[in-house]
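Handover notes (outgoing to incoming on-call)

Open items:
1. ABC transporter ATP-binding protein: sequence verified, structure written out, both below. Nothing else pending on this one.
2. Nothing else urgent.
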Amino acid sequence: MDYIKKLSRFIVPYKRYAVLNIICNVFYALFSTMAMLSLMPMINVLFGESEKVFAKPVYNGLNEIKDYSENYLNYIVTTTTATDGPQRALLYMIVLIISLFLLKNLFNYLALFFITFLRNGVLRDLRDEIYNKVVTLPISYYSEKKKGDIIARISGDVNEVKNSMLSVLELIVKEPLTIVFAIVAMFMISVKLTIFVFIFIPVAGFIISRIGKSLKRKSDKVQKEQGIFLSTLEETLGGLKVIKGFNAEKRFYSKFQESTNRFYNFSNTLMNRQNLASPTSEFLGIATIAALLWYGGNMVMVEQTLSGGSFIAYMALSYQILTPAKAISKASYQVKSGNAAAERVLDILETESSLDDQPNAKSKEDFKTNISLNNVSFKYEADFVLKNFSIEVPKGKSVALVGQSGSGKSTIANLVTRFYDVNEGSITIDGENIKNITKHSLRRLMGLVTQDSILFNESIKNNILLGKENATDTEIIDALKIANAWEFVKDLPNGIDTNIGDSGNKLSGGQKQRLSIARAVLKNPPIMILDEATSALDTESEKLVQDALENMMKNRTSIVIAHRLSTIQNADQIVVMQKGEIAEQGTHADLIAKNGVYRKLVDMQSFD
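ABC transporter ATP-binding protein structure tokens:
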């Protein structure tokens, strides 16, 4: 139940609905009991057992409310029977019963009506907060997590938590109150019979609690397995070309089937344990009723200490306890299974981001002098991928980073944009450590074009507008022209309003990359980071993209990570990297003249 306290802040905005639900449930419990009690005078009228009361009773306070209520009903029955006959008295009793059952069901509906706003509001706010957390957590968090597992938490687990929190409201208000009112009424009818009933309640409670002990563990297995098969599905959709190309459909199907089989088995165990709650509680309830019939029947027929009408009403009240008792046992199971789901949800919500802005972080509005990496060392896991790395990128200059795969080039892009933090050393902009600058203002100064063109299943316009939300169509077209993309966009059926499909798959690689460049052009940042922006392209597309990049980089500070050396020959400085360190640096001409590592790389690529 600890998670209820942690998640209670999601209930606070909807507390008025919770209060109205509680009020309605109080009335529901009250009228439920009164509806059962109203059976007593009706049966007494039917069998002529009503006590004759000719004088109107006087109300003497709550201490004598039971006697007053009985005497008043008997007075109405007596006077009505005397003046209008027993049929009229019976009609009044039926109207009373119908009215009480109507009120009971009305308040039950109102309780459910108000709780709907609470449960759906909590569901919405929980999902919103988890999504916000998902986009604010550092990229390193997702290198350890499966995407499908995150999807499972934001969909299935959150829904489980919502149902569980709703069950708690029933556990603490509606059902317990129904039981309490019924027991009070039962004591009023017969103390002796009620004490007899209480002998059976602890036994039933013990049996039901034994059933529910392992539910949390079993529920946790179900939810984890759901994350696994959703991850397999997500990976399948992302790599469908490779799967088909390598005829690996059966292999992935087997992997998915293994997961769904485990899910099937875990779910069966969990559901069968949950399903055991209702028949068990009902059987125990019926056993209690049977004992009541035997013991209470003796009181009516042998001892004659209880009237027939009172006994029937008592039996109805006893059975009324069964329904909320079953609901409580079911709700307690939901709370236990919700506990496992809540732990998975809280695991995301309570994850601290190592990249949160410092309390006194500044907002940087412009770029004035240089970007500097000062003795930077960094590791993703055990081994350092950068060691005492230092470079300076003056404003308006372009610095290219080249070297073999794994030399640490892309890591520098990740560190400058602060997707990761350095382990040692510092990165400064205009002399200010980027850790002291808000991430939002830092990234506002930068444009990023990556090797993988990350586009979204929307129109070209909406993809480009990520660079500048309030841009006009004219500005978008100008950016497309600079990126050499307008030549193909203008021929599309709906121009910039054409939908480009999932990940832009309706376009070629070169077209996607030029749209990525147009997005960066529209943003118009003072610093541009190009992470192998042309390495995945064919020669013709590369020429168009390279022209677009050169258009964009004019008078702009650029860090260019390149695999193809032909694309960076005009850079102001080229840094050649080997195993996280600088092997040599200088202009293209200087490095060729040195006849070192760079010259070897150029000679190797001259045959490409």
